[in-house]
């Protein structure tokens, strides 16, 4: 249990709760859920520019990372087609993947197909079901994709000023504006309470909030004097209690709760808001293809990791369809902006390609 690990090393409850957020981030779990300690490990393993466990902002926003990967691929001769939805994977008479068919009817032939879509989309929507073992299909259907995340993007006309560390008179960013700010994390019991509410179908009344202001480090993201604020919040259920829909009223009611919480820490925040974009778990699924809204394409619980990700006997990036590989977050080692699944899958696919 994460709680036991933190109790061994720390005494301060606010510090333990703040560290605990990385053990439940993106997970429908509480700090008291067995296996939550691994999720914390997952988020602090690795390094950034030589600093172990460090994280960073991408200059230009997260889309700039995709553009950098695209430029590197194009430099090696790759052809990239955007806004071209895939309809299904093409299979030959021998059952091998032979490319993909696009929704506009175009067929793209290839000897190998790598999918960084979720296992659910890859195998339940894009692959002919008769080509997959029934027990494999059942396993993919049973993957726990519950997600507690509602992402809120906010535009503000001034920098938030927190009671704990008020802004200077010149309004210039301070050190705490340049890192991740955790709110409603004074104690692990608060995280557990927020989790419990969501398990009963109710958005948390005091949500866990991770607040970042990327425009402080990357001024090009907002006009001068203004800022963009990224709110990663938990816990919100995919399905609301009583079958209530995640309509505009429900979205705004939850966002108002989040903003009321921020206002208590930084008076004047609500008055500074110019606009907001609210993405609930169903929105994240619909827009980004994240099953259940899960940023990891499936829970990072111990029964869905290592040799069992996405299914036993298929953790090595190969699928039941020869020539079809999984290279996204649903493959080992799971989610996070680190590229490990893609790199590993590429090596496996290259090995098979050389045999062909």
Automatic annotation (TrEMBL):
InterPro entries: Amino_oxidase, FAD/NAD-bd_sf. It is found in: Mitochondrion matrix. GO terms for cellular component: mitochondrial matrix. It holds the Pfam family Amino_oxidase. The keyword Ribonucleoprotein does not apply. Keywords: FAD, Flavoprotein. GO terms for molecular function: oxidoreductase activity. Residues 35-170 form the Amine oxidase domain. Probable oxidoreductase that may play a role as regulator of mitochondrial function. Interacts with COX5B; this interaction may contribute to localize PYROXD2 to the inner face of the inner mitochondrial membrane. Belongs to the carotenoid/retinoid oxidoreductase family. This is Pyridine nucleotide-disulfide oxidoreductase domain-containing protein 2. It comes from Grus americana. The lineage of its organism: Eukaryota, Metazoa, Chordata, Craniata, Vertebrata. The gene is Pyroxd2.
């Amino acid at each position: 249990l994460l709680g036991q690990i933190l109790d061994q090393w720390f005494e301060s409850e606010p510090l333990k709760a703040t560290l605990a957020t990385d053990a439940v981030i993106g997970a429908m779990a509480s700090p008291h859920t067995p296996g939550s300690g691994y999720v914390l490990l997952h988020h602090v393993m690795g390094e950034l520019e030589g600093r172990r466990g460090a994280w960073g902002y991408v200059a230009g926003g997260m889309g700039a990372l995709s553009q950098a990967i695209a430029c590197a691929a194009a430099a090696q001769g790759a052809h990239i087609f955007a806004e071209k939805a895939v309809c299904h994977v093409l299979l030959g008479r021998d059952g091998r993947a032979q490319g993909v068919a696009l929704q506009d009817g175009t067929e793209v032939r290839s000897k190998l197909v790598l999918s960084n879509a979720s296992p659910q989309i890859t195998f339940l929507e894009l692959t002919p079901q008769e080509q997959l073992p029934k027990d494999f299909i059942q396993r993919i259907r049973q993957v726990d994709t519950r997600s507690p995340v509602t992402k809120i993007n906010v535009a503000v006309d001034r920098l938030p000023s927190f009671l704990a560390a008020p802004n200077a008179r010149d309004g210039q960013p301070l050190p705490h504006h340049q890192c991740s700010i955790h709110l409603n994390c004074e104690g692990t019991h608060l995280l557990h309470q927020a989790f419990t509410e969501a398990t009963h179908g109710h958005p948390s009344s005091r949500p866990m909030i991770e607040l970042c202001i990327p425009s402080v480090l990357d001024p090009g993201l907002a006009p001068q004097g203004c800022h963009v604020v990224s709110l990663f919040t938990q816990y919100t259920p995919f399905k609301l209690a009583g079958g209530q829909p995640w309509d505009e009223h429900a979205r705004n009611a939850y966002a108002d709760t989040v903003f009321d919480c921020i206002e208590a820490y930084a008076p004047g925040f609500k008055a500074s808001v110019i606009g907001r974009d609210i993405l609930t778990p169903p929105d994240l699924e619909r827009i980004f293809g994240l099953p259940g809204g899960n940023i990891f394409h499936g829970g990072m619980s111990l029964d869905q990791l290592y040799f069992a990700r996405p299914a036993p006997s298929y953790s090595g990036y190969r699928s039941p369809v020869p020539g079809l590989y999984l290279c996204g977050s649903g493959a080992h080692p799971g989610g996070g902006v680190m590229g490990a699944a893609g790199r590993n899958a590429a090596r496996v696919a290259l090995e098979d390609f050389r045999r062909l």
